[in-house]
């Protein structure tokens, strides 16, 4: 049996199991709190696993392993930024949001401000961030199709992406948050198992000597004549050729990674799926443990791929390096268990990677359709007059539409590294969402004008800077290769757009006299003590 | 608004109480400086990666260099801070928050 057939069988087993979960979850989903927040009845540990599932996306698994395999040390920077970012969420955001919000990020902002403009802004930014992130995941799916399923024809890839998209729509439309959370949990366990297994095999091959693995990686995949530089910073970011701009770009990337997580809508709504703020704290602690362990595994996977597969073969598989981890699974399996072992391991890792993309895409679709239905439809268009039933119907319809948009965008998939595309989504989230969230939780004087200008200011500056960066035109791997309209030298806008988001929020606030002392007292007391927070649904 | 409406003045009373101000101070005194500290520690690492490459490349054991060790220390510090925060919250925040919540819920019944 070939690895593609076996991979298909494993993947279809996962699909069957998760569809079963979705059917079960759809029977349990009756109220809006069930659909948006899984009835708020998940435990801290369950939600922690689901946080891991949402966060360990194709970008983390395929992208980071790929960057480490191709650029050594510089890929490691991603893992560190992605992990440290969780401290911002733990210390400043998770518990306070759980206490003061209901279903979406906008609930917290709209609490003490004029709801319609603030919800419109937050809804728009939620959808924009999610679509950026969706695009990254779908590019990952495209890169995998050829390698794992042996589908090389364009039509074949197209139909695979459409199939993945259709499945995810089914999860979200029928399963809601309950179904999606369980899909994340199953996937997180599978992914950790797969990554740990390959890591153990790789380390075992090198006698559990990390130094031996590193030197082999440097010799096999480092630049010829200077293999030592593979283990020091500067192969990809801030190379001497890029000069000062390259080094500033590195800082910009670092800022976006560390500040983006606490502004990602699909992560923020995870805090609503548990009964209390204490459970939200517990779930982030679990999440940090799982995610940290996972990134340590990807470090070995990346260097392992560099050592055992080698640069040339990785680049031949995918120019962005996204297939380094599956190629490593094939190679190490072959070396240790023979050809059949390699086939099985590749099939397993491939099926897990597909499951990962499917689950993360479902989480993103849920976040954006929830925001559309709850913020834009129910509160802006219907001015709070929509019934819960209508709201959930609209959420399901918008999941369908957003899913279709994601499929459409993914057909434009490019050969960018997936982790890099996700870094852009992080920059947009850190610029557009984080300033407004932090101000509204901690700044007494913050008001409607401030919130609206923080969101639009951060969002627009991030988007404009990306459009005129070397990523879109003029750079070596630009989206539009034939024209050059770039004037912004950095490929990540964070270092400019994040401070701009904060600045716009501050300026907007002081320019308006509006201030509601009673409402600030309420949100401050509620966020710190949990008075009047939304309760879990009892069936 | 679909959230429960309470008498706003109760919240203002609680907000002005010494106990709540104490809770707020305990929360902010721990989390704000810690946030500054771990962000600075992280940015130091990023800056060193950009401008102190010879230093990051110094080999400590075999092919394990300063850059890798500092990176792994970022993992260690993240785990430690998360653990320390949960201890701090359980010991000196949760008891006050629970007490205040019960009091307010009594008043607004």
UniProtKB/TrEMBL annotation, chain B:
Coiled coil: none annotated. Signal peptide: none annotated. The chain crosses the membrane at residues 30-52, 64-85. InterPro entries: DUF485. Keywords: Membrane, Transmembrane, Transmembrane helix. This is DUF485 domain-containing protein.
